[in-house]
Amino acid sequence: MSERPDTTDYRALFLSPTPMMDMRAPAEFTRGAFPSALSLPLMSDDERAQVGICYKQQGQDAAIALGHALVSGDLKAQRLAQWKAFTQQHPQGYLYCFRGGLRSQTVQRWLREEGIDYPLITGGYKAMRQFLLQELERSVASASFVLISGRTGTGKTRVITRLARGVDLEGLANHRGSSFGQMTTPQPSQIDFENAIIMSLMRLLATGAERIFLEDEGRLIGCLSLPGSLLEKMADAPMAVVEETLDDRIDVVIEDYVLDLGRRYVELCGEDGPHLHAERLQNDLLRIRKRLGGQQQQNVSALMAEAFEQQWQHADLGAHRHWIAVLLEKYYDPMYEYQLSKRAGKQLFSGDRQAVIAWAQQGA
Predict the structure, then answer these.
(1) What is the mean pLDDT of the chain?
(2) Which of 54, 97, 223, 269 is catalytic?
(3) Is 54 a catalytic residue?
């Protein structure tokens, strides 16, 4: 492997995206990392904690000595084998730790002793994260956003995913955005979510995109917050509004929240999946009881329970249309009208999904 220099070209790393080997402890990686990074830590969480205590009590030299003692013999050989495999699979990659200091330099030296020259990222995770936060402000300031708006069930996300210049915020958040939008797998950390948004904007702007399309979102997508500067600019952004009939909207909700979510529960939980799916939706409904109204919530709950029984016993999805229609007309539509009244941006276009897609693809 020919020697490559260490790098501070963070922009190139993220535009590629470049494979990265993260030397930080697992807990650090979980709090925040980058999509192209793989966690291959020098030390476990427990080992890192021991070294940290030693550093505070006895100083740096003693901490380094303890670290070498903890990661030695067969354990060192096992981790070294993982690092070597990564370098072979990703010859153009890099390694990093928190600040580009002792941990990444140690692994770099150990690899070099094995005949592998593998570069590190100077400044490490901290510098890259700081770069991305600065890049967020630059990207938001220079981008021209258009919001894809519309009532619940109009398929706004379907529009976004068809657009080369679209950023699927809900996809990045692993959440469908509504009170019922939780998926079967966890949402990313707040830092990972922010990093993914920033890199998506960076890459689109690097292509010279004049407009970037975002789904009209509130401050929160599930438990994740949109960055403040992005949210502020979205409040004034112009809109393209997706308009579909109530029947078409019900079809979308059934596809997303009954069929697709149901499949995910079966894949995750097996034969318990259908009942856990139904229980999840009932719990989601209970959470909006106050805004929906107690009697209305009870009515929808009964309709939902009956719909699942019909689905399980007769493979009939028709009864789901009743509770979905009530929620759309009595809960989501009034909420949409209120939120739309708070938007300052002008409406550029309206039409069904295909019309909005065609309009956006024409560069209107």
Answers:
(1) 94
(2) 97
(3) no
